[in-house]
Amino acid sequence: MAQVTVIVPTYNERDNVAELVARAAAALAGRDAEILFVDDSTDDTALEVGRVAADAPLPVRVIHRDDNTGGLGGAVVAGLKAAASDICIVMDGDLQHPPELLPALLDRHDEGDADVVAASRYIGGGDTSGLGTAVRFGVSRAATWLTKAMFPIRLARSTDPMTGFFLVDRSRLDLATLKPQGFKILLEILARTDLRIAEVPMEFAERRHGTSKASMRQGATFVAHLARLRFGKMSLFALIGVIGAVVNLGIMWLLVEAGIPYVWAAIIGAEATIVGNFLLQERFVFADMRTDARGIGIRFLTSFAFNNAEAALRIPVMALMVETWHISSVLATGLSLIVAFFARFLFHSLVVYAP
Ligand code: GDD
Ligand code: MN
């Protein structure tokens, strides 16, 4: 068994492969190591890995995936499963993570008191110049702060839970507990397990070639990932419900202002919200529960039918509650919304996204 597997997730990093392999091989000289690329590229990165592997001084493998399941996080988990050794080091493929740091991670792990060793941009000797603009730096710091505030105990010893450069001892990790939808796989590991972490400082470099895949969409995915980790699916479902209610009122207000009769404004607002909520839930809440058994069309129709039935039933049920229990209509509205929330959540997890 190799002593260490270096896992490199890649998405269109062709021009960085040769330098990465050369520098990693030099840094790992004398150790029994392999490099494993997990590639979701649409360019010929995988071919380039094959070319470079042919004259590399250590084994270099590539897994090319066509479905991009789970994005970056999914790629890392696929790499952890396929690695030849239990000691795995995950690093980016764009040379923002200096391969020269590989021995420091291994040496720190050899001290024996940690299952995870992370390369941190925020401890002594670390450096964040590669983050680029002040805006990106600010966003990164704020996200780190928010994340640490949400997991005060599990992240107590981590200064940089979002780093993508870390060693993990796979034998200490139950891969089945990871839900690899997130961009931030280290955070997933630290938040869901009680692995012990140590850190070494790193200088975060500028990307060598190509462009970053960070985006607004990834930002949204990250916030959803945090909410799911911290409060579970139901909280995220509730958050989307609240956003939907506000949007619903906004649409109604706009339509009524534009002279559309109130009833039509209410119907259009409600239907638009039902569709919007479905799309958000599909993407952010139930992404890991989608199966091939039922396509998105069926899921949508089931969800749409349920929500319309529920909306249509709520008013008569409220009237019934007011009459039989002699409670105020405000209380009846509140109660019916709470019941509707749980009913909706249960219906979606047990029926729409049934395994
Ligand atoms: N296989 C695979 N699939 N690899 C991906 C995907 C994907 O969907 N998306 C991105 N990658 C690879 C990139 O090719 C690169 O090697 C690495 O993941 C990081 O992606 P970048 O596009 O360079 O993102 P970044 O520089 O903004 O993010 C990095 O910094 C963050 C900390 O600021 C990553 O290291 C993150 O993991 C890290 O948390
Ligand atoms: Mn990068």
Automatic annotation (TrEMBL):
Transmembrane region(s): 236-256, 262-280, 300-321, 327-347
Pfam family name, one: GtrA_DPMS_TM
Keywords in alphabetical order: Glycosyltransferase, Membrane, Transferase, Transmembrane, Transmembrane helix
InterPro entries: Glyco_trans_2-like (IPR001173), Glycosyltransferase_2 (IPR050256), GtrA_DPMS_TM (IPR007267), Nucleotide-diphossugar_trans (IPR029044)
One of the GO BP terms on file: polysaccharide biosynthetic process
Compartment(s) where it occurs, according to its Swiss-Prot or TrEMBL record: Membrane
Boundaries of every Glycosyltransferase 2-like domain copy: 5-141
Single GO cellular component term: membrane
Record's bilayer topology term: Multi-pass membrane protein
One MF annotation (Gene Ontology) recorded for this entry: dolichyl-phosphate beta-D-mannosyltransferase activity
UniProt domain GtrA/DPMS transmembrane: residue ranges: 237-352
EC number(s) on file: 2.4.1.83
Superkingdom of the source species: Bacteria
Family recorded in the similarity comment: Belongs to the glycosyltransferase 2 family.
PANTHER family assigned: RFBJ PROTEIN, UNDECAPRENYL-PHOSPHATE 4-DEOXY-4-FORMAMIDO-L-ARABINOSE TRANSFERASE-RELATED
Protein's recorded name: Dolichol-phosphate mannosyltransferase
